[in-house]
Amino acid sequence: MDILAADPGLSGGLCFMKAGVVVEVLDMPTLPDGAANRQLDVMAICRRIDKWKPRIAIIENVQPMPSIPGVNGVRRGMGAASSFRFGFAVGQIRAIAVCYGLEVKLVTPGVWKRYYGLKGPDKEQSRQKALELMPTLLPWLGRKKDHNKSEACLLAHYESERRGFL
Question: Which residues, 6 or more positions from 121, have their beta carbon under 8 angstroms from its beta carbon?
């Protein structure tokens, strides 16, 4: 079964898998929104879906992190505007998948990360695990900043294994 996997958000990643083989990995396509920010490039995502014709979309079921003070009193997380942009982008990805008639599967980070034994906030673990499982992805995942694309690849791999495609 052919899969689109998305690590959503404006700095996320997409992975397309056909018959258990990754055929394309890319940073989430974005474009300027006219207000010094970025927005999803919906048409670029649609062109990729038209090209690869996935039947399943596995999307990380994420939540924005509210801006709360940490133990040292420093605020961490997203402010209201960032949370809104993030949630809007996540909704756009889900809506695109539904409009294309894809079977949409949402999975929380805790579920798929536990499956691979990934712990803590270190995103480099995801990149290393993706390369361990799929070494041919090195051209797409060769830089430390490719962790979001790595997570999309792991989501595709997770769904493929879960369904018995691998």
Answer: none
Q: What is the tens place of the pLDDT at every residue in 24-67? A: 999 999 999 888 789 999 999 999 999 999 999 999 998 656 55
CA distance 42 to 31: 9
- Give me the residue label for tokens 């694309």: 149
Give the number of domains in the chain: 1
Asked if residue 71 belongs to a domain, the reply is: no
Maximum separation of any 2 CA atoms in the chain, in Å:
49
Distance CA 117, CA 107 (A): 16
Contact between residue 68 and residue 77 where contact means Cβ atoms under 8 Å apart = yes
Write the CATH number for 22: 3.30.420.10
Length of the chain: 166
Are 8 and 89 in contact by the 8 Å Cβ rule? The answer is yes
SS3 119: coil
CA atoms of 68 and 75, how far apart (whole Å): 5
Q: Are 82 and 65 in contact (CB under 8 A)?
A: no
Q: pTM, whole model, 2 decimals?
A: 0.89
Would residue 72 count as lying in a domain? no
φ, ψ of residue 60 in degrees (nearest 5): -65, 125
